[in-house]
Each structure stands twice: as structure tokens, then as C-alpha cells.
Write a structure and sequence with these properties.
Layout lengths: L4 E4 L9 H10 L5 E6 L11 H10 L4 E6 L3 H11 L3 E5 L6 H10 L3 E6 L17 E5 L15 H14 L4 E5 L4 H10 L3 E4 L1 H4 L4 H9 L5
Parallel strand pairs: 1-8, 2-3, 3-4, 4-5, 5-6, 6-7, 7-8
Length: 220
């Protein structure tokens, strides 16, 4: 049974206080810090580069969960390794040799994750399940925060949990997009164990209470 992990998304924090917000998330009892990297091409938004990851690394001992929403993750992932990422997740839909990229991330000493966008079927991830440490199921279309949770994506979470159990895999199942107390509970029931929280964490006055609620401590 994998632990329930809360990964506050730095994309939703006060950008003028990156270091303080990262430290606050850690002190609140979060488990990982999720960093969404967007290139303005693979998704229609631009966010952070490796320099931001390096800056965060100086302010927190949090595991940095870096999500590369970029067209060429094979070209750029070494820069995020050097910046201090602990886990690097790439998209199956991006332009790269998926197996080679995952192997390179692992060889560099980082956990390797694979992400599926909402329209992408679970079958696209199946050839790589023995090569990953994390499967990320997007529950909104990637690129912008504040979107409505897409419950139809939970079937992919359930499929991943089923394959993980029956084939003896140990990868984490992460969900990202529209995660709050209610949707986290639904995703947990489907088999997810890592919950990326944006406004449902950084939008709250009490970060510690937000972590407890998302973890399920306040809802049984």
C-alpha cells in the first residue's frame, strides 16, 4: 500500500515569495513540491525553467516533483537534473523516444514519471509501466490552473491501479488538475496516492489544515 502524498503546486503560489512559499508548504506537512514547467508550445502557457528549480532547491529539502509539459523533454531534462529535481515526469504525447528519455532520467538518479493528457487513453502508457516510478493522470487539460476536474479521467487511474496490483509494479499514481477535498477523495478511491494541489493548498489561509483535509484526515 503506497502512502498518501500531497504535492503542493508552486504554480499557484505567490511568485514574489517562491522561497518562503516552498518552505511554508514543507512546514505545513506536504510531501513533495510540484513544479509545472511549460514551454508555450506543448501547452499554451509559459511558466518556469531550470533556474527556478535551482532557486527552489536552495530553500527547501522537499522532494521536487518536476512536470515537463514541453515538446522536447529528452533535450531539456538534464538541465532539470542539474538544477536539483528529484522526480521528472514527461508526457507520452511529446516528441521523443519515451523509453530512452525515461531510462536517461533514471540513469541520472531521478525518479522517472510518465504523464497522460485527458484525451490520451491508458493504453498509451502500457508499454512503459515497467520503466516508471510514477504515472501522472491529468484530470484537466494541461496549461492553466483553476479548471474543472474531469471525472472521466479516473478510469485511467483505476486501470493503472489494477495493473500495478496484478503485475507487481510499485509506481506512484498521481493526479493533477481540479484537486480539492472532494475530488481527492474520488481519486483516492480510484487508486491514486499522490495529489497535486494548487489553489486548494496555496489558496487557503491555513496550509497545514489544507494538507490534512486533502490527505483525508478531516473527512474520514
Amino acid at each position: 500500500m503506497l502512502p498518501t502524498l500531497i504535492a503542493p503546486s508552486i504554480l499557484a503560489c505567490d511568485f514574489a515569495r517562491f522561497g518562503e512559499e516552498a518552505a511554508a508548504a514543507e512546514q505545513a506537512g506536504g510531501d513533495w513540491l510540484h513544479v509545472d514547467v511549460m514551454d508555450g508550445h506543448f501547452v499554451d502557457n509559459i511558466s518556469f525553467g531550470p533556474d527556478v528549480v535551482a532557486a527552489l532547491r536552495k530553500h527547501t529539502k522537499f522532494p521536487l516533483d518536476v512536470h515537463l509539459m514541453i515538446s522536447r523533454p529528452d533535450h531539456y531534462f538534464p538541465r532539470f537534473v542539474d538544477a536539483g529535481a528529484d522526480r521528472i515526469t514527461v508526457h507520452v504525447e511529446a516528441q521523443h523516444d519515451v523509453s530512452k528519455t525515461l531510462a536517461g532520467i533514471r540513469a541520472a538518479g531521478c525518479g522517472a514519471g510518465l504523464c497522460l493528457n485527458p484525451p490520451t487513453p491508458f493504453s498509451a502508457a502500457e508499454p512503459f509501466l515497467d520503466q516508471i516510478d510514477l504515472l501522472l493522470v491529468m484530470t484537466v487539460n494541461p496549461g492553466f490552473g483553476g479548471q474543472k476536474f474531469m471525472r472521466e479521467c479516473l478510469s485511467k487511474v483505476s486501470a493503472g491501479a489494477d495493473r500495478r496490483m496484478h503485475e507487481g509494479f510499485s509506481f506512484h499514481l498521481e493526479v493533477d488538475g481540479g484537486i480539492n477535498v472532494e475530488t481527492a477523495a474520488e481519486a483516492r478511491q480510484a487508486g491514486a496516492n499522490v495529489f497535486v494541489a494548487g489553489t486548494s493548498f496555496f489558496g487557503k489561509a491555513d496550509y497545514a489544515a489544507a494538507v490534512r483535509a486533502l490527505r483525508g484526515d478531516s473527512i474520514g
